[in-house]
Amino acid sequence: MLDIRDRGHGPNTYPPSKGVPQMPEFSFNNAVVSYAAQILGNKIKGEEAQSATALDVPLVTRTNRYNAAFRAAKDAIGSSHHANWNDNPSVRGFGVFYWHNNPKSKRLAEMYLAEYKREFPDLPIWGTGLFASMPGSWTNFHMTRVPNYPAVLVEWGFMSSPQDLRLLMSDDYRRRCGKVAAKVTCAWYGIPFVEGGKVVPIKPAQTIQPVVDKAPPAVGQEVVHLPPAASSWRLYPTNKAPVKGNEMAFLNPAKFGGLSYTIIARPQANVVTIQTSQFGKGNIFVGPGTGATFSSNQTSPAKPLPKKRFVKLPARSGGVNNTSWALYHLNKPPRRSPASNIKLELNPHKFGGLEYEVLGNHSDFVNVVKIKSAQAGEGWIYVGKETGAKFETR
Ligand SMILES: [Zn+2]
Predict the structure, then answer these.
(1) Which residues surround ligand 1, an ion (CB under 5 A)?
(2) Angle formed at CA 275 by CA 269 and CA 277, multiple of 5 degrees
(3) Which of 23, 24, 56, 243 would staple 14 via disulfide (CB 3.0–4.6 Å)?
């Protein structure tokens, strides 16, 4: 028995993509996988190629590892967990994908759908809830196509729907999604599932700092630092009690290598008011054990500038002038047919080569990255080795 559990993306995928301002998709995926793992414990071993803290692991690396694990444990099953997105905010609901001609994957997908309906009889299902991944279509996902083990890709709801987003951000929903996943795994292996008592709230990995007892400096002169080990830190409205459930957003120190804010008020013990650029003013809990540290404004450590990745499209490759390098629409598959997938033909040859900042990797297509063209805005480009595209981090 082996439960292959995939967190979908790494913690560094929002920004630029994979999330909405209120919630990086990873925070949801991570919570579901962690809850499922917690419930299953040692009863059923797990395999996780994308950890809760490591930078995004390329899909190929992940499936190589999962397929190797499957060679060793021939009865392994796998699931990749996601939150969905649609341009239309009224699209809602749960859906699960399986590779179209793999009956075991289909069976696993059906079990997910049935268990989801049992747990959430009142919540909407997206379409029929079951999607066969087909080659040459938008459903051709790496995580359903490449696995040799029975595999599903689960979309637990739409970040683009305000109602779904509220669910996706709630600890209760995340916990119950983890329970659904654990129940399906138990059912697959014919192991009785014992309800209740096993799931405890997940705290982000935190470093415990010694508490230095000193008189608090004057307001506005002190800076609070949230450590990079924490991937989710509740931000509360200033007019509500800073308790779980009242949060208006989650800060993600991990994504930025830690976050620092000037303290603008101390409304109560271990709670400070800060001004965030994304969510405005709010309160955060910074008690002992959270890993928050303090310094005076004057000595606040400079944050290192995050490195950026760039891709260079050569003027010529393989003896051919690169006069048309397709820039694909963000919401369409990165392939030349139909032609309406293409937003613009970039012309590296005309400019002696072109360079763009890499804004993200496509989650479903290998060697496809997001860039922003000055002329046409954001889109996908294909940068497989044979194209001669070169990457640089600086
Ligand atoms: Zn995803």
Answers:
(1) 8, 82
(2) 145
(3) 24
Q: How far is the CA of 389 from the centre of ligand 1 (A)?
A: 26
What's CA 30's distance to the chain center, in Å?
7
Q: Which residues are 381's β-sheet partners?
A: 369
- The count of structural domains within the chain is 3
Range among 260-264, 323-327, 360-364 with highest mean pLDDT value: 323-327
Output the CA 7–ligand 1 centroid distance in Å.
Answer: 8
Give me ligand 1 centre to Cα 195, in Å.
28
Q: Is residue 26 part of a domain?
A: yes
Q: What is the pLDDT of residues 88-130, one digit of tens each?
A: 999 999 999 999 999 999 999 999 999 999 999 999 999 999 9
Residue 8 Cα to ligand 1 middle (Å): 5
Which whole number is the average pLDDT over 380-384?
92
The reply to whether 196 falls in a domain is: no
Q: Residue 368's beta-bridge partner residues?
A: 382
Report pLDDT digits (tens) over 339-366.
899 999 999 988 888 999 999 888 888 8
Integer Cα distance of 61 and 58 in angstroms: 5
- How many whole angstroms from 363 Cα to the centroid of ligand 1? 7
Task: Clarify whether residues 115 and 7 are in a common domain.
Answer: yes
